[in-house]
Amino acid sequence: MARIDTPNRIRGTQDILGEDERRFARVVDGFDRVRRLYCFDRVEIPVFEATAVFARSLGETTDVVSKEMYTFEDRGGDSVTLRPEFTAGIARAFITNGWQQHAPMKLATHGPVFRYERPQKGRYRQFHQIDAEIIGAAEPAADVELLTLADQLLDELGIADGVTLQLNTLGDAETREAWRAALVEHFNAHRDELSEDSLDRLERNPLRILDSKDPRDRPIADSAPDIDQFLTPEASDFFAAVTGGLDAAGVAWTRNSRLVRGLDYYRHTAFEFVTDRLGAQGTVLAGGRYDGLIESLGGNPTAGVGWAAGIERLAMLLDEPAAKSVDAVVVPLGDAAATRAQGILAELRRAGLAADMAFKGNMKKRMAKADALGARYAVILGDDEIAKGEAGVKNLATGEQQPVAFDALAKALNAA
RNA sequence: GCGAUCGUAGCUCAGCUGGUUAGAGCACUGGUUUGUGGUACCAGGGGUCGUGGGUUCAAGUCCCAUCGGUCGCCCCA
């Protein structure tokens, strides 16, 4: 007997249904609601882009670009890449569509992103992000608005409690260069004490040694020069304006002077909302300012700030999944009722009620089905009811049943 | 990419030191009740024990490989 091999789900991808889907949807719905309150426009961008869009903006030496991107040649021989994040694609869209005429723009989007990584809890190869960006605003008020939006979202999702906002500044380009040079000098002086990982970081991304978890690195990282002494007056003022704005908006934050970002395009403000409830995947929402990004993609110098959050991670932090709600289930009995039920069902739905029909098995099975669907009411419809022009409406929570005229059904159920 | 750990029905698991046709609860289907659910009782379907090799008279149980999940590192949301 030949057996057909069923194809497997690809590693690191997910099929989401039921409770997981409800949690997922609650995050997306919450984001969509809050984003409107802050007057962010929804934008749709492609799932894949020319590889250069990501390689040039994120930095060739970053892990994301050098070993985590889904990159392939299309049939025309062009190198394309499944988006590993949103920011680069949005920046590219800003340039190609000439959106500078609309600047400053407040944009929001959500959808799948792809990273070829080893899967873990809260980490997938196709995962989903919500994303918010403000492009064309160099003012610290933009940073504040974005952080306030994030803060309100976490609050409305009911997960603000275990989550803290860690904030830092990376300074402007001048600051960052000076600080980076000082760090390289400091770490070079302690080469022989650093972990292997950090020796590698020293070549590719020395800033990341600062937040190393390796105990061997900690003393050296802790004694490294602080960015504060390198901040230009402008950079210092900028950061002060951001923190002052957050205080005014009532957003709690803590300074983490060792917080850096892995992607090359960040300047000034860098932040992470972190939790200890997700094991190693503690970062739940993160972002920062990327004033140099648009220019590096060939656009006019344009300021930008933004953040992204992993929908799966937020969903895992949610307390109770929203219950599925069905207002009524129609239970027809007999051939005449089966036909009549179609009309009643359509009427209920047109009246805005979530309604379904139990059409299999004997009455007991149908009632059980109504119950399993989580319906508030069963609308019972048999020959007797059709003769009288009234359906039996049973409240499935209390067990009470009352006759209701067919043409009054929608109104009665809407009121109940 | 590195290290550790796990992998028996849709789900949660039992299966002792290898030994007849692999079990339970929940879920599902049918029935007790061909017009009344959420309780109860009865019956049933569903597993090549992740996959592939090996050791053995005999492997769910031991060995190797591989795939997948989980945890940590790296990185990141």
From TrEMBL:
It comes from the Bacteria. Homodimer. L-histidine binds at residues 85-87, 115, 129, 133, 261, 265-266. PROSITE patterns: AA_TRNA_LIGASE_II. CDD domains: HisRS-like_core, HisRS_anticodon. InterPro entries: aa-tRNA-synth_II, aa-tRNA-synth_II/BPL/LPL, Anticodon-bd, Anticodon-bd_dom_sf, His-tRNA-ligase, HisRS-like_core, HisRS/HisZ, HisRS_anticodon. This is Histidine--tRNA ligase.
